[in-house]
Structures are given as C-alpha cells and as structure tokens.
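From the shared-data thread, chain only:
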Amino acid sequence: MVKVNTCVFISGQGTNLKNLLTRSRDSSFPIVIKLIITNNKNSKGIILAKKNSIPFKIINTKLRNYEDKILQYLKKNNINFICLAGYMKIISKKFIKKFGKKIVNIHPSLLPKFKGLNTYSRVLQHKERITGCTVHYVSEKLDSGKIIVQKSFYINSNDNEETLKQKTQNLEYRVFPEAIIKVFRNY
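Structure, as tokens:
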C-alpha cells in the first residue's frame, strides 16, 4: 500500500496527533505523517514530533503571509493530505484553494450543532442529552464541510466541561482514524 504524505496541524496537547502517529505505523493505515504544523511554540505535539523524528514548523500566525509559508512547507515535504487536530486557527478560503487537496478536521460536537469554540460549555448550557464528535472535510465555511464520520454518546447528569472533554477525546481517538480510512477507501 502506498501511504499518503500527510501533515497534521495542531495547537495544543497533541493527543489526536499521538493517536494518528500510532495508527500510521500500521501497514494498512493509509497515511504517513511527514510534517507537523503548529501555531503554538508550547504545544506538546512538538515533543511528539521530535521523539518521532518528524519535521515540524512553528508558525507565527501574526505575520501577514503565514499561510503562504505553510504552503511552501507543504510543497517542500510533498504533502497531499492535511488533518486538523485541535488547530485553533481558521484556514482561509485562499489557503484551501491553493492547497487544492483534501483537508479534514475533527470537531468536538455533533455538527452542525455547536460550530466554533467553547463547545463543551455550550453543549451543557443547551442541556443537550447527546453529544459526540464529527470528522468533516474543511470547506470555506467554518465547521460546515461534508461530514465523513460522526459518533455520539449520552451525557450524564453529573457531566461537566472536563468530563465531556475527556469522553469526547476518547471517542475522537476511534473516530478520526475511521474517517481517514473512509476518505482513502476509494482514493
């Protein structure tokens, strides 16, 4: 199987990155992570990149042309697929067009509900009974691309933002790889 050169964009802990790295070692998994992009110099994902000898770039998103720099890194590393895994920046329409290949994102809600930030608090404020996560294609509209895989779980009366986050992340670790396999099943 020829694996697809992939870049993972992160901003935080890198837990989905860690999961994808583990899965990518499986010979039947369709991607190989060749580059990591982060906008956070303190991201724990950098430690994972170093530990696994994967090139990484810390991007200063305050610079006007930072997306052009990212596109250069993607081209240089022959990247054909992007996974957004907790990347806390909006990808511009221009970037999406220029990259011209598949970009997927994992979001901690059952889209189209609760697009954007502060998902767990909004789920609780709306007294939802069910929540979950969604992997979708990135489109020009925030958290609105075609859904690839979506899974849910019931919310307990004693759940809070922290327990919802933990349950959602545990579900994400199963859902993200499943979605990637689905994307490349007919690639």
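The radius of gyration is 16 Å.
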